[in-house]
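Duplicate of #3305? Posting structure anyway:
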């Protein structure tokens, strides 16, 4: 067989391999996707059903009529709007502090070589192995002594402390992916270290900031244990705690609970939809060098 005749055979063989790879990938991923999406789709359908339709013996995957009564009830009657506002405030403030501190810590770990640097990074990683429940009682005693129980400040401090180590390590990888020669050029042009960080590093670091902010926001938004233990007033509840209190002693309002779950999912989904490009870019750049 000549070289000219063998070329189409190799092309067809490569195309068949790609097709087989795609088929196998879809056969594996499709059941996994269905397993993940079905609970969310069921809760979404349940949020539009009335009480009679929910407890009927006939199974209906879709609501017969779009009923927004559950959303109106949970937002206005149950007070879910205050839970939503509390979560936004606590998570927004926590993420802002985490981003600032993680940039400073990640920059120091990436640019400076000092004794104990690797041990410090290892210590940061080891903090992720400590379960939050083990520190619950000591933190509660400390907050009670300084008067932070039943305040959002206790949640912000706790979220920053628990989220910062991982985000600092993540930010260190992002900063390491930026060539130091760019900063050196800024220093030669007359910038000091702080000006070089603000004018040179930060614009390049935007995808990394987005990735760190997203991870921190999701972690704070979904946190339940500390919010349950440190906040006692219903007016200061966050969304996870507010949803847990919707289960009554003698029954559960499944429609309102599903509607609240859908509202709780909205901010993370919207954030991922709008900044997906920056998130993927940030994760890929942070994996290059660290």
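Output from current build:
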């Amino acid at each position: 067989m000549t070289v000219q005749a063998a070329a189409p055979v190799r092309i067809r063989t490569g195309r068949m391999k790609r097709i087989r790879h795609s088929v196998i990938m879809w056969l594996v991923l499709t059941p996994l996707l269905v397993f993940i999406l079905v609970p969310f789709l069921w809760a979404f359908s349940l949020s539009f059903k009335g009480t009679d339709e929910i407890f009927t013996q006939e199974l209906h995957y879709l609501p017969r009529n779009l009923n927004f009564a559950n959303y109106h009830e949970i937002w206005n009657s149950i007070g879910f709007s205050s839970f939503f506002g509390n979560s936004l405030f606590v998570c927004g403030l926590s993420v802002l502090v985490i981003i600032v501190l993680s940039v400073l810590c990640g920059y120091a770990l990436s640019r400076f070589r000092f004794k104990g640097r690797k041990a410090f990074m290892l210590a940061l990683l080891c903090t992720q192995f400590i379960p939050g429940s083990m520190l619950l009682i000591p933190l509660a005693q400390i907050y009670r002594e300084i008067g932070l129980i039943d305040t959002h400040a206790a949640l912000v401090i706790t979220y920053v402390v628990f989220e910062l180590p991982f985000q600092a390590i993540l930010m260190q990888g992002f900063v390491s992916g930026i060539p130091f020669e760019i900063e050196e050029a800024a220093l030669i042009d007359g910038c000091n270290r702080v000006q070089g960080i603000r004018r040179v590093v930060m614009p390049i670091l935007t995808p990394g900031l987005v990735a760190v902010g997203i991870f921190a926001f999701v972690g704070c938004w979904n946190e339940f244990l500390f919010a349950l233990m440190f906040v006692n007033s219903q007016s200061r509840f966050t969304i996870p705690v507010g949803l847990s209190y919707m289960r009554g002693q003698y029954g559960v309002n499944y429609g309102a609970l599903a509607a609240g779950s859908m509202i709780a999912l909205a901010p993370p989904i919207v954030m991922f939809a709008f900044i997906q490009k920056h998130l993927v870019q940030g994760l890929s750049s942070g994996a290059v060098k660290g």
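Confirmed duplicate; merging threads. The longest helix spans residues 3-46. Residues 36 and 130 are 28 Å apart (CA to CA).
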